[in-house]
Each structure stands twice: as C-alpha cells, then as structure tokens.
Write a structure and sequence with these properties.
This protein has about 400 residues and is mainly alpha-helical. Strand 1, helix 2 and strand 2 form a beta-alpha-beta unit. A two-stranded parallel sheet has the order 1-2. Helices cover about 45% and strands about 5% of the residues. It is globular and about 65 Å long.
C-alpha cells in the first residue's frame, strides 16, 4: 500500500501499525467473542486472547478493530468512540511485537525449543525468560521507543487522547529522571537490555528506593513497571506450568520470583533482538523472520489436565458438563462464564436474560445457562483459533 493511498486520519500513519499489516508472517484473526460484552462491562475483561506461537493476533467479533480492518487506509475518526479503536489497535501492535520476537527467538536459539520442546523442570525457566524477553520487546518497541516521544494525535489527527499503552513514562520525564540518574537515556539500544533485566529481577540499576520517594514521576513510572514485571512472571509461569509436565508447579507466592538471566544464550538473544528492534522502530525495517512455528508442533493443552479456562479456548474445546464446571476453581469458572457469555451475539441477545449470567456465577451453576440459552444465536468462530489461549488481562 503506497502512502498516497493512506488518508491523513488513518492509523496506518503509525509506522508499527503499517508494519503489522505488511508483515507476511502475521495474521489478524477475528475471534468468535463478541466485543460488545466487554464494552458494556460484562465478563472478566477483554477476551480476544493471546498466543504468539500461532503467528496470529486476535481481535473480538463486532469490535472497532474488526470494522477498521475493512478499510485500514481510510479515516479512523468515526470508529474511535471513546478511543476504543486506538486502544485496540495499539494492543494489536503490542501482540504483533510479541509474535515477531517469538519467531526471532526460535530462529536465533533453536536449541531452547521455545514453543515446541516439551516443558520440563530442566527447561522451564528458559521458557519463562524467553517470554519475558518478548514482553520487553513489545513494551520497549511500542511504548518507550515510539509512543513516549511522539504526539499520537499529530501522527493520526482523529482527536485521540491516547498517549501510551502499558507504561507511565513519557520523554518529557527524561530530565526529571536524569536528576537522579545522570546517564539515563531511553532512546538508545542499551535501554532494551535494562528493561529485560528489570522485568526479570525487579532491579533498575541507576535508581534506588529513595529516588522514588523524592520524585512522584519516577515513583509512578517504576512502581507500575515493577508490578507489571512481577505480574508477567506470574502469568507466564502459570501458563507454561499448565502446558508442561504435570509435576511442574510452584506455590502462588513463588510464581513471581526473579528470573536468573545470567545464562547462555540469554545475553546473545538480548543483544541481537534489541538491535533488530531498534532498527525496526527507528528505521522502519520490518525484519520479518522466516522462522514461523509449525501449528502441528507448538504446545498444546495436555489431555486429562485439570481445566483452566484462563488458558483454554471454549470455542475450540467445547462446553464442559455441569459437573465438570462445578469442579473448577472460582477463577477458572469466571473465565468459563466470561467466554460463554462472549459467544453470544450481543445485539440479538435478550437483555432481560443478562442477569442469568450473574446467577450462574453466584451459584456456580453452568447448567443454568446451558438449558436457557441453547437456542440463542452465537457469533461465528474462526477456524484458525487455537485450543490454547492466554486470556488473562
């Protein structure tokens, strides 16, 4: 698509958005979850889902993102109600950078077997490190190296108030940060390695606890990032434990423990991927990786494992029985109901029946919905949806 074909109000004027659509290794899949349930505040959050091993980015049915995909080169203004479109597309870019990084890890360090080798006690932390590395790719590439230094409404003048996606840092904060850490500079390649290590152990060399107390700007930024890193370590350990050998597991208090990043080939991956990412963001080179995952070989849910619906796609594995649903943890049951709700076409769903979902949660009674809603229209499911989806928000 040539620049002359792109409207001045198109989100394709954001370079990473255009790269996402131009990259031949990535597909955007409209998943069979009606986004309107999320818009009205029903369910456990946005359930479009995440699985970079598939090479797909998932967006919800009837979402603003789905409508935008019909004409991405046109003006985005009419679709950006409450900045929902901008948020959805930026989250899609965040996921795109994950996919991009997953492919490069497979290319640069095939010996790890990220996404393909059985997950064992011996290689579990390797897999966790690889995922955290891709989290740094997504955050540094989009937020730190791009959004923090531009005014998004100048790039795509549609009245957006979105300034960042997952972090609180802006380049206007740089001077305040250098009062405490004189060599601090986000806009350099070495910064990528700093964030990878910070997400691994929660230590940002150059700042100490007293600096956070003396600067609200630094406190707001680093406190959020510290929480974000811990959350990502916990979430991916839960996910990979679910996909790995049955004996893999850890107490909840240990799920967010630090990652030891002083191993081969970690340094090599940080350096090489950081260099590619810098060029991708700052010079517009896609650096599309030829190494895509074979769908037949990527990790799949292990049979007979206790179901966790925060990691399972209800559209692909089918509905549980009422008895099976009762045996779920409360958290897993909430994700089951959230996915079940999202399967229905919101526009055609009788609004007087919506309170039944709360009753299902309150009573932990999946049979109630099965019997009442069986004839109601559901949205279509895409064949490319995987059985394994990461659904935590």
């Amino acid at each position: 698509m040539q620049p002359d074909d792109i409207d001045s109000e198109s989100l394709l004027n954001i370079p990473l958005v255009k790269q996402m659509l131009d990259d031949p290794t990535v597909d955007i899949v409209v998943r069979g979850i009606d986004a309107n349930w999320h818009y009205v505040g029903l369910g456990p959050g946005k359930l479009s889902g995440f699985n970079p091993f598939t090479g797909c980015i998932f967006v919800g049915k009837n979402s603003f993102a789905e409508k935008w995909l019909l004409n991405p080169a046109g003006s985005a203004r009419e679709l950006n109600f409450k900045d929902r479109l901008v948020s959805e597309i930026l989250f899609a870019v965040h996921d795109y950078l994950h996919v991009w990084a997953y492919n490069w890890i497979a290319e640069l360090a095939p010996e790890i077997g990220f996404g393909t080798k059985p997950i064992t006690l011996q290689n579990f932390e390797d897999m966790v490190f690889c995922h955290i590395l891709t989290e740094a790719v997504a955050t540094v590439g989009l937020d730190y190296w791009y959004l923090s230094r531009i005014n998004l409404n100048e790039i795509a003048p549609i009245g957006t108030g979105q300034q960042s996606l997952t972090i609180a840092y802006q380049e206007s904060h740089g001077q305040e940060c250098r009062r405490f850490f004189p060599d601090f500079d986000v806009q350099q390649r070495a910064f990528f390695g700093s964030i990878v290590k910070f997400y691994c152990d929660g230590i940002f060399n150059g700042f100490d606890a007293e600096d956070l107390l003396r600067s609200p700007v630094i406190h707001r930024w680093l406190d959020h990032e510290l929480t974000y890193g811990k959350m990502q370590r916990r979430y991916c350990r839960e996910w990979f434990s679910f996909l790995g050998e049955p004996k893999i597991g850890a107490a909840k208090s240990q799920l967010d423990r630090p990652i030891d990043y002083h191993k081969e080939p970690y340094d090599r991956l940080i350096d090489h991927i950081g260099e590619l990412l810098w060029d991708k963001v700052n010079n517009g080179h896609i650096h599309s990786c030829k190494s895509a995952f074979d769908p037949a070989k990527i990790w799949q849910p292990i049979q007979n494992r206790k179901a966790k619906y925060q990691f399972l796609n209800l559209n692909k594995i089918g509905l549980p029985t009422a008895k099976q649903a009762r045996q779920l943890t409360d958290e897993s049951f909430n994700y089951l109901i959230g996915q079940f709700v999202g399967q229905f076409d919101y526009a055609l769903f009788p609004k007087e029946a919506i309170p039944i979902f709360d009753l299902m949660l309150e009573r932990k009674d999946f049979a109630l919905g099965l019997s009442l809603f069986d004839s109601f229209k559901r949205v279509d499911c895409d064949d490319r949806e995987p059985a394994n989806l990461f659904l935590y928000n």
